[in-house]
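Next up, sample data:
>
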Amino acid sequence: MTNRRQFIKTLTVAAAGAVAMKSFAGNSLGNLHKAPVGLQLWTLRDTIQADTLNTLKQVSKAGYALIEPYGFDGSFYGIPAKEFRKMAEDLGLQITATHTGITAGNADSIIEKANDAGLKYLVLPSAGDRPFASIEDYKQLAAEMNIIGAKAQKASLRFGYHNHSHEFKEIEGKILYEILLSETDPDLVCFELDLFWIVKGGYDPVNYFNNFPGRFALWHVKDMAETGESTVIGSGTIDLKKIFSQAKKSGMKYFFVEQEEYQSTPIQSIFDSYTFISDQLL
């Protein structure tokens, strides 16, 4: 019998164009094995800037079809967007989304440069230097996110926000993350739900899928060791099978593996995570 990991690798490399880039949510539950698996490149932060090409070769070899770089400012790791895009696509890798320090002020410039990269999503990875402690701070951030989202929409891009655990604090009876969800326009702003950080914050992702269906177009798929650190997918305590079973309700289109702490090497970790996802979740 053909090994599923080998099958997916063959599929994604042979169909590195539009067919291979179909979204997860676009597949029926009986065809999830066709979903492309993504990697957030922060996982390989120790090597991606020093040896970009060889690091991307390892990502492709592991079986990933999508990548989500970080720190996009018109270039990736000092490499112009068009050049980085060709480097990735030559390896069968699609740059679907990126983390970027986008603001209402620099959005026009970032969005223009995003077209060179072939991006679909621009993701704000955190509030950055913005005030981020009170309910009013969150409302102001949500208002800015709507402005950025409208600019992105005009350029046929989607804008999203990535969480950590502090967004799940409660102030005056309100969960701060829910202010962002409630105060942003679903047509303009989506969310990249980090499964590790929402669990770390004390909440169940599936409850959010039920309460805010369709809002979570992107996921960071991370697992949590008993120590509370991130670990290889499938070796931790997060019930990923339950979460993946609700992917359609969540609105998820693409997902990206991420790992921040390691029990082996980062490269071995991305191979091990891919194996578990392709064999157990898809």
Notes: The chain has a mean pLDDT of 90. DSSP finds twelve helices and 15 strands in the chain. The radius of gyration is 18 Å. The first helix runs from residue 4 to 14.
